[in-house]
Amino acid sequence: MRIYFYIIAMAFALLQFTSCQEEELDRNSIFTDEPTTEKNSFDQWLKKNYTDTYNIKLIYRLEDMETDFNYTLAPADFIMAQKLAKVVKYTWLEAYDEVAGLDFTCTYVPKIIHMVGSPAYEETGSVVLGQAEGGLKITLYMVNYFTLDAATLNSLYFETMHHEFVHILHQTKNYDTEFQRISEGNYVDNDWYLSDDEEAQAKGFVNAYASSQPDEDFAETIAIYVSIKPTEWKELLSKAGENGASLIVRKLNMARQYMSETWNINLDELRNVTQRRLSDVTDGTLDLSPVATLDETD
Q1: Model's pTM, two decimal places?
Q2: What string of DSSP letters covers 81-149?
Q3: Which pLDDT score, from 0 to 100, does residue 23 have?
Q4: Which pLDDT score, from 0 to 100, does residue 25 have?
Q5: Which of the residues in the chain have pLDDT under 50?
Q6: Where is the signal peptide (predicted)?
Q7: pLDDT of residue 219
Q8: Which of 60, 120, 172, 193 could form a disulfide with 81 if both were Cys (CB 3.0 to 4.6 A apart)?
Q9: Quick one: CA dihedral 106, 140, 189, 181, positive or negative?
Q10: Which among 173, 122, 153, 136 has a CA at the least distance from the CA of 17?
Q11: What per-residue confidence (pLDDT) applies to 136?
Q12: pLDDT single digits (tens) 57-71
């Protein structure tokens, strides 16, 4: 599970917490016995574009069985949910389709995407922005804050989704354990939050959370590399300094090798495709007009 926290103070400070579990992967649909209810045009669009195509159930209503009762939550805005659903399909799912093929995407992506309109507020004053659970379900909070800004889209949604997908892949076919030796002795487990990102980068991690343990380091290395712009990646390496940058590059090269040899995915091609598609979103090329109106809501 990968969770984003924003500490409410003078500004929001992004943190992350992850705990992932292995899952049995099955290409067959897990949504064949759902009760029949009246569907609006968006529901029909989701069935065609998510369930029928990818075997994914996208939930945009607050359902008791899917909702964490530890938080007081607001439902996703009907129009915002439609926009984000289009963006996730185009920028995340179809990026893997383009690079690795539809069958690959259908087999390995999480089977449930749950959209929540609000952030989830902790008693400490922090805010949970997203969760990913065991490779099966991803919860995206703050859907009602959707905006056509690349950095915001990445921090709220796509870094979590890429991160969790990497976990699914390496839990299916593991990466070379030599990766763990690059920063052996420097992982800090649950104390990762005691350092900021720049301190972690100087030690050879892409961010503070990556310093928690090797699996999270591996997932974060790929997720951050694919999500951010090439100029931002160069800036990250610059901040890391010569020693930190050399370690990060070693890890990235091992990740490239793993994705290529294990999954026949060129990580740089995936990055280029993801960035191109994200640009189509932010520059207005992708049509985000709603497929259903508010008049069709329950």
Answers
A1: 0.83
A2: HHHHHHHHIIIIIHHHHHHH-HHHHHHHS-SEEEE-SS-EE-TTSEEE-EEEETTTEEEE--GGG--S-
A3: 42
A4: 52
A5: 4-24, 32-33
A6: 1-22
A7: 94
A8: 60
A9: positive
A10: 122
A11: 85
A12: 999 998 755 555 566
In what order do the strands lie in the sheet containing 14-18?
Answer: 14-18, 2-7, 126-128, 120-121
Give all strands (DSSP E) within 156-267, no chain letters.
Answer: none
Angle between helix axes 214-227 and 230-263 (nearest 10 degrees) is 120
H or E segment and range at residue 159: helix 159-172
pLDDT of residue 69: 56
- Amino acid symbol at 177: T
Domains of the chain: 2-28+44-289 (3.40.390.70)
Residue 143 main-chain phi, psi, to 5 deg:
-60, -35
Closest CA to 175 of 107, 247, 262, 265: 262
Name the amino acid, one letter, at 145: Y
Strand intervals (E) in the chain: 2-7, 14-18, 57-59, 112-115, 120-121, 126-128, 130-133, 137-140
φ, ψ (nearest 5 deg) of residue 196:
-90, 175
Cα separation of 50 and 83, whole Å? Answer: 14
Q: What is the pLDDT of residue 72?
A: 72
8-state DSSP, 8: -
List of residues 6+ apart from 76 with CB closer than 8 A: 60, 61, 84, 115, 116, 117, 143, 144
CA 120, 150, 146, 158 dihedral sign is negative
Q: 23 by DSSP, 3-state: which?
A: coil
In this prediction, residue 6 carries a pLDDT of: 38
Beta bridge pairs of residue 17: 3
